[in-house]
Amino acid sequence: MSLSSKFLRELVRGLTSALSLEELDSILQQELKRSLDEFTPGRTPHEILVSLILTAEQEGWLPLLISAVRRAHPYHPALVEISRRFGLAPTVTIQHSDKAPRPASSQRLEKILRNNLPFLDPARWREQMVRIEQQVCRIEMNLNPRGTGFLIAPDWVMTAYHVVQEIHQGLIAPQQVRVRFQHLLPPHQAVPAAGEEFALAKDWLVDWSPPSPAELADTEDTLPTPQEMDYAILRLAEPAGLLPVSSALPSSPPRGWMGLPGIFPAVNEEDALIIVQHPLGAPLKFALDTQGILGWNANRTRLLYRTNTQAGSSGSPCFTLDWQLIALHQRRLNNANQGCSMESIVRLMQEHGISLPENLD
């Protein structure tokens, strides 16, 4: 991306509003092994920032600089907008009914929000999107991506049980499992940003429920029972939700986690649905279908929808357009995708004696 004079000014303003030169120098040293001293002799703060940005662009590490600063201040509006314009935020795709999904522009996304949620503040909506971005993870076994998960407590990750079934059965050692947050794709980089990885605790399985026999056989013959909700709660070796978003920057805010509500929203056919996922193990993506929901199965344990997914999306959180968690993505059917009702999951967790803390928000 070649910097225009206008975008250069926006970058300087964004950095100036977000952090001091002292904090910027700390970020440079810890994340990029550079020092602000390289850009300071005889210059004003404005000139230092211009020199830093232009040098980073010429040497090819401007995306890394923007990513590092954003990790330190993930919710700062100017840095969020700069990251989005520079392609450093997760991809958002939008589909409408049966049409193919397309990458979303900021203008198109805000038009959808205005049309469907006229009283919603787009800035608050984007802030919640950024929070969720920090809390969704890729689940890896022996360095290979296997599914998606999300934090529901400081050290608990929820995913689909079938994603981790081989661990539970002793076929894969828990020590070979990692969960990776902030697996994003900076532009101009051959390798996606590694993100922050965490191991499982020794007593790693907090709670679980299997899929139905019909689902294991990949058929649609019988309804799953309320005890067959295909979820697992994994305990991490560290409280990822309480730790800074960037381990290299202790001053960055805590990651947080998604609180599971006691009351869930009613949803109707052709309501919008958002799935936050790592399809095919790829960097984090947001898939939004403006008419995604098809309805519930007969006993309301499974939600059916059109919203696009791929292998690796199992365990992804599914949200209404105003970020209310309603389902856990499970599998692909012949003519739809299917997720496990979060309301049914929470009810079963309560039957199992599992209680959760509130989130940090």
Offer a few descriptive terms:
alpha+beta; Thrombin, subunit H; 2 domains; 9-stranded mixed sheet; 15 strands
Describe this structure in words.
- This is Effector-associated domain-containing protein.
- With 361 residues, this protein is an alpha+beta fold.
- Helices cover 30% and strands 24% of the residues.
- It has two domains: 5-86; 123-352, Thrombin, subunit H, CATH 2.40.10.
- It has helices spanning 5-18, 21-32, 45-59, 62-72, 77-85, 106-116, 122-135, 161-168, 213-216, 342-351, and strands spanning 91-95, 102-103, 136-141, 144-153, 156-159, 177-181, 196-209, 231-236, 273-277, 285-289, 293-296, 302-305, 317-319, 325-332, 337-341.
- It has a nine-stranded mixed sheet. Strands 3-4-5-8-7-6 form a six-stranded antiparallel beta barrel.
- Strand 9 (273-277) and strand 10 (285-289) form a beta hairpin.
- Helix 2 (21-32) crosses helix 4.
- It is globular and about 75 Å long.
- The two termini are 35 Å apart.
- The model has no long low-confidence stretch (mean pLDDT 88).
Largest sheet: 9 strands, mixed
> How many helices does DSSP assign?
10
Write down the overall geometry: globular
Number of strands: 15
How many domains make up the coordinates? Answer: 2
Proper CATH architecture of the largest domain: Beta Barrel
The strand order across the widest sheet is 2-1-10-9-13-14-15-12-11
CATH topology of the largest domain: Thrombin, subunit H
Uncertain runs: none
- Give the rounded overall mean pLDDT: 88
InterPro entries: EAD1 (IPR045430), Peptidase_S1_PA (IPR009003), Peptidase_S1_PA_chymotrypsin (IPR043504)
Pfam families: EAD1, Trypsin_2
Domain Effector-associated: 1-86
Organism: Anaerolinea thermophila (strain DSM 14523 / JCM 11388 / NBRC 100420 / UNI-1)
